[in-house]
Here is the input.
Amino acid sequence: MQRLARAMRMEVVASEAAGVTPNFHQATLSGPDEQLVVVCNHVHPVIALARTPVSYWQLTFLDHPYLAETLTSLWPCEVLNVADLERPIEPSDLEDLSPYERLLAKDEHASRLGNLVFHWHD
Here is the structure.
């Protein structure tokens, strides 16, 4: 994450590894004009950008095209945009999931794709 911060002329001010919950790693980046959080699913190379602060089930996703481009140039990952993260979960989203993960998709908190990919289930 330090490479990304340097490339963006930002600083990593906090980071937290995924645990039992949440299921994502997160790093808070701060720059002269903004502060944001980079979240990365702990299993899949899927990343999203969110506003600070991050709190339980309260990820407010944001688009940052230049940061997304920089991320994909540094690492083999997919950066999801707000339109994808905010859309309702569709049956095709569940095809590659385990039975347990499909069960999680029925939870009231998982009404949008972003809450299925980045969640606090244990």
Observations:
- The longest helix spans residues 65-74.
- The first strand starts at residue 11 and ends at 16.
